[in-house]
Amino acid sequence: MSVTKRKGFAMILAIFVVVMVALGGALLLSNAAKGSKSISDNYLRAQAELLAQSATEYALMRAQGVDTTAGACLNQLNITVNDAGGTAIFDINVSLAYSFEGAAAAGCTTLADTTGKDTMVLIDATAVTRATITTEPIRAHRRSWQKL
């Protein structure tokens, strides 16, 4: 009796090649998804940094228009930025603290008073994305020390 040996090496090699091609395709798809998320996060980060800068300048402009000698101060500013469709995408919180040349005005968040120097304001602006547009919030912070 003679026994015929069947060779299955070609089939094993074909299965191995198919598995390797499938793993390569999965890796490519994973890298494409990560690259897309990275690009959108970088775009949102750039927007947040520019909005924090704009909010700082806006808060300074508003603070310069307030008469602190009358006891009124701008201590907090909250801004919501919407996209073209009207959906809120950024929340910007600005806090202001003052350092006065003379006596501190009532109702103002004060760092120092009677410094003998010009009245100054410390502006902290934080821009944060809403959870509806990204999986984790993107935050940009800007601090500025300005003369009033």
What would you note in describing this structure?
The chain is an alpha+beta fold. Helices cover 38% and strands 28% of the residues. It has one helix and five strands. Strands 1, 2, 3, 4 and 5 form a five-stranded mixed beta sheet that branches. The radius of gyration is 30 Å and the shape is rod-shaped.
What's the quick description here?
This protein is rod-shaped. Helix content is 38%, strand content 28%.
Provide the residue-averaged pLDDT: 84
Largest sheet: 5 strands, mixed
Query: Helix amount, in percent?
Result: 25-40%
Tell me the strand percentage band. 25-35%
Low-confidence stretches: none
Radius of gyration: 30 Å
Q: What oligomeric state do the depicted chains represent?
A: single chain
Q: What is the number of beta strands?
A: 5
User: What is the terminal separation in angstroms?
Assistant: 106 Å
Number of helices: 1
Tell me the number of structural domains: 1
Backbone structural class:
alpha+beta
